[in-house]
Amino acid sequence: MRIGFDIGGTFTDVIVVDDDGRLFTTKVLSLLDQVGEDIVRCVHEVDAQAQVEGFVHGTTIASNAVIEETTARTGLITTQGFRDELEMRGQRRPNIYDADWDRLPPLVPRSLRLEVQERILGNGRIERALNPAQAQAVIDQLLADGVEAVAVCLVNSYLNPTHEQQLGQLIAEVAPDTVVCLSYDIHPEIREYERTSTTVINASLIPVVDRYLNRLEQHLSTYSERVLIMQSNGGIMSAQAARRRPAYMIESGPAAGVLAAARFAQETQQDQVLSFDMGGTTAKACLIENGAPLEKPGGEIGGGATITTRLFGGGGHALRVPSLDIVEVGAGGGSIAWIDDGGALRAGPQSASADPGPACYGRGGTEPTVTDANVVLGYMNPAAIAGATLAIDRQAAWTAIEQKVARPLKVEVLAAAYGITQVANATMMRALRAVSTERGRDPRDFTLIAFGGAGPIHAAALADSLSMTRVQIPLYPGLFSALGLLLADYRHDYIRSVAVTLDQLDPQAVLRHYQELEAQARTELVEEGIAEEQIRFERQVDLKYGYQVAELSLPFPDVSVTDMQDRLAQLFTEAHRQAFGYDRADTIELVSVRLQAVASSGHLRFTELTGAGSENAPAPPTSRTAYFGPQVGECEAAVYQRTALEQVRSGPLIVEEPDTTVVVPPGWTVQYDVSGNLLLQHE
Amino acid sequence: MAFDPILVEVVKNELAAITEEMAIAVWKTGRSPMVKTGDFATAICDGQGRLVGQGYAAPFQLAFFIAVMPHILKKYGEDFAPGDVIVVNDPYAGVTHMPDVMIIAPTFWQGRRVAFTLAYSHHTDIGGRFPGGFSSQCTETFEEGLRLPPIKLYKGGERNEALLETILANVRVSDEWLGDVEAKIAGCWRGEQELKRLLEKYGLDTFNSCCDYLISYAEKATRAAIKDIPPGEYVYEDAFEDDGFGSDGVALPIKVTLRAQGETLSVDFTGTGPQARGAINLPLSMTEATVYGAVKSIVSPEVLTNVGFIRPIQVIAPVGSLVNPRFPAAVGGRAPLFFRVFDMLFRALAQALPDRVPIPGEGGDVLHFTGEREDGTPFAVMDIFFGGWGGRPRKDGIDGVAPMAFGSYGTIPAEMLEREFPLVVDGFGYVPDTGGAGKHRGSVSIYKQWRFLSPGKVMVRTNRLIRASGGLAGGASGSLSKNILNPETENRELPRKAHMHMDVKPGDRIHHIVSGSGGHGNPLERDPAQVLTDVQDEKLSVAQARDQYGVVIDTAAAAVNMPETEALRATRLQPVAAAD
């Protein structure tokens, strides 16, 4: 039995796959203090005697800590003269005309950013040895200031880690329990700000993630010691690896959903797909072409930088970690509706999260949320959701919207509720635009794959606004991200700085780098319980003309030592011509070698889930009143179960599922296809 | 075409995405440090030569493309063919100084010329008397380097080798010069490919009507935004302290009069002094760019960047003045006056919109260093860096960030400078007690210290060496800029010239300090908790907390001593209030 669980802002989704491939799904509220207990309880309910092979976990613990500034108290040690670079962020800003911009505070305040006397030059040569006495004084000062973690990033250390390693030693001697993170270990790549920021994020997260995983493992160990964590790159790693490299799990939750959508697109042979994942707090979108999600070598976290500034950034904390290129906006089911100073209706980014949650959950929430609007409009069941496990108090939702929105705006409650969904939809459109029109893709050519607890409620309305005509709701839409956890492969990314021109290249040394990285990967993956023969390696090489600021990452060719230089030069020249239309007789530099180590974890396929999905005969349809805006008004919408939709039916209708609700507005049809998915089409 | 809001939105975003795609190509393949910094921009003009899409750019750069296109169309009319590439850097043909070299390529589709793709970037050299071509110590444009009127570098895909050979023989770093030009051509080529994809999909008529719509939409939105300015006349006067040669006691008058008249705005420089002897003058295209950039930053930041935006704005710049010099006046060192005029426009707008307008901030200082490496190859490096933002009506300025005139400029990582050039960055960071005091503090000074590893020629461009960035609404001025040679040995202050030239030898160090920015509002009204944070961040000393802000810090307790603070502030508030 394998178990995937994905913690969102409001709900934690749980998927259990037993050894016969049968699926059991459930949702629990995201109460971080008791997630371990809740998961154990879920497993117990399925099979108290279960033999659990392992847990796969998607979590927002790392990104939340950075965004909410609850990372560990961390010190930063830099080369003399460089302590302010973390705060200045290359002196850039994200929006050239925004005079109201606030810079995100750095994760380490200036008083905890200290400098050591040492210098390594741009060729890697040590010009000034580390002054050990002064370094010791700096370390003592940070420890006296009560730091839990120390990030070390020295200028030009990507070429020579000697001084960083010496500092690591010095700290370990006096404070063996203090977390130390060296920039050479986490991200040995040129550009001191980006490297420093990545190192700081990693160091400041280690204590947070460690505490979280300790608590979690303590509970889960009832069933299995094996806990795997989803990474931003769409691969999984062991909890042990996550404790060392928490920077790799920043987009853990969102990545799982995108991975599931990509697998779904592959299996259903759809080349042009936008994934749309709406949960309790945020909505996320990703472009998936030919079954592969767009990836990026790094990006930023925080500062509203989730709408990616592709060229320079400057809004958030730089994070150079390979990840899926996901755009996220602050609108979800739990987003609170409010009236701003100018009297305009807004939704989010504040969320009622799990506790107290939307007013309709009856847990003491009084602020009106998007979910409350969906209940009032009749889209969501007015009595209970989540497979009848969560009671709904429609009157509470009605009252919250009436008092906080309808009365101040002097409109009817239904109109206010409809307005809330419209405002939330406008925000979510930004995410969908950012991955389509803003990348030069016409959304009309794409199919929207909608999932997440709230995604299928809003999907058709959003598609309408973008003139998209096809929406697919896969099986288990509310638990789709959790399903993605069980589809993911193990993946580790490694990078090593080389920084030599091709004419100076020592081919043996390059092969040695790969062999060493492969040995490191093998050790880590075997420790994670992977059989050695299952590990696949993909070698990549970063090349550029010597003076260029950015490199091209290319697959490393299968070459002999003698023709490596020529072959790399030829490959790069061709790639440069392909990408930019020209090439030059210029010195080419091998910047870094990269290694991707991948191992398959599972065997799950969507098509195999079909059987598990078809349960009892569908209950006969019912109906309820729903409101579809001023033009359509209130009308009676039939309420079906998914399996009852074997024939094409026209909206307005509502499909109720244990984990979500699908809204088919007037003008749309819906049909259940052979593999159990719903296809919504515009008439 | 029936108006299709979705299609217009798609085309609008496609144009922005394409220009951004072009910018990425230039940035990734560019050869010089200026491209890495961000001193470049890319754009698309439609078949009529109207700017319709501009992705990455600084506010002032948006007007460069608007200014240059009429010169191109006037010279070439319909004489364009597929594969043509035009190069131009003439400040009297729309470019604003000669190191900025612009590339313009026509896009053909189905045998018709349907658009232009454009890219400019600042080159580290353009020949002439001084390396870099942006010194102010020239008196006419012939001294400043190689002036290129609009000429075809490629004709029908065929490169003009004689022209190229001539150019490369006249610049100090020929390889780098060509590398940047190739990067811009790559950007234009990329834009052309993407435009053709767009046209294949939607057809020319749809493309053209979307352009019409987007231009008139930008104009309408700008008119609506200008209406927010209370009608009236807003005058701001300042003086510029450098005639290009750093002569003593110079004060060149600059006057700007803003006239807000409902939906239109006129910006009148009448009363500004005659053109200066040295190359600090703003060519007309630069004056216009400054106005458009400043107005857009405050009045209509959300409006699309296309030619429609400038229509409601009129610029009046007397011929022969500092802001519209006569040919062949030198203009290479126009940047310091540009920063000053940008600052003045903000201060004039602040009279009309006191709750909205910040002090735009300081920086844009530059080290230019040329010489030969040990192996005899020539190098030229420009390192640009910034102070930060001045105080704002509702919040502090920001320390150590590109000021508002500078868009998405940034600094080059020290590691990239040190990898490629014979210099070492000894340090780069904040200088305490330098930010203009105010209820909302202006940015502190930034220092940068370089150590040179080989002999060479240095030029340092410095703003605010003599006249500080003033405060607004009762705020105080920021500190002045400064350059010090070898602080650990000679410790000599270098001459206070906007463009200061010197020769350096290996081991020499220059310690540069970018000025602080003015503060906004009365410093005695600043929240003592913010003062304490500044002290804890070592951006403000305990002594200055007391002197400038009237805040008494109890260092032992790391807290504000409120009773003493209130008592001290009470004694100070009196005379300040009386002076009002």
Q: Can you give a write-up of this model?
A:
- The complex is a heterodimer of chains A (683) and B (580).
- Chain A has 683 residues and is α+β, with helices and mostly antiparallel strands.
- Chain A has five domains: 2-66 and 211-249, ATPase, nucleotide binding domain (Nucleotidyltransferase, domain 5, 2-Layer Sandwich); 69-203, Rossmann fold (3-Layer(aba) Sandwich); 335-423, no CATH class; 489-599, Dna Ligase, domain 1; 621-682, no CATH class.
- Chain A is built from 17 helices and 37 strands.
- In chain A, the strands form ten sheets. In chain A, strands 13, 14, 15, 20, 25, 26, 33, 36 and 37 form a nine-stranded mixed beta sheet that branches. Chain A has a six-stranded mixed beta sheet with strand order 3-2-1-4-11-12, sandwiched between helices. A four-stranded parallel beta sheet of chain A has the order 6-5-9-10, sandwiched between helices.
- In chain A, 55% of the residues are buried.
- Chain B is α+β, with helices and mostly antiparallel strands.
- Chain B has three domains: 5-220, no CATH class; 358-521, no CATH class; 528-579, no CATH class.
- Chain B has helices at 5-29, 33-37, 62-76, 161-170, 174-202, 204-226, 284-299, 335-352, 414-420, 528-536, 542-549, 562-579, and strands spanning 40-46, 51-54, 85-88, 100-109, 112-122, 151-155, 158-159, 232-240, 252-261, 264-268, 313-316, 362-372, 378-388, 423-431, 445-452, 456-461, 482-485, 492-493, 499-504, 509-514, 553-554, 559-560.
- In chain B, the strands form five sheets. Chain B has a seven-stranded antiparallel beta sheet with strand order 2-1-5-4-3-6-7.
- In chain B, a hairpin with a 2-residue loop joins strand 9 and strand 10 (264-268).
- In chain B, helix 1 (5-29) runs antiparallel to helix 5, helix 1 (5-29) packs across helix 6 (204-226) and helix 3 (62-76) crosses helix 7 (284-299).
- Mean pLDDT of chain B is 93; it is low at 574-580.
- Chains A and B meet through helix 3, helix 7 and helix 16 of A and helix 1, helix 5, helix 7, helix 9 and strand 14 of B.
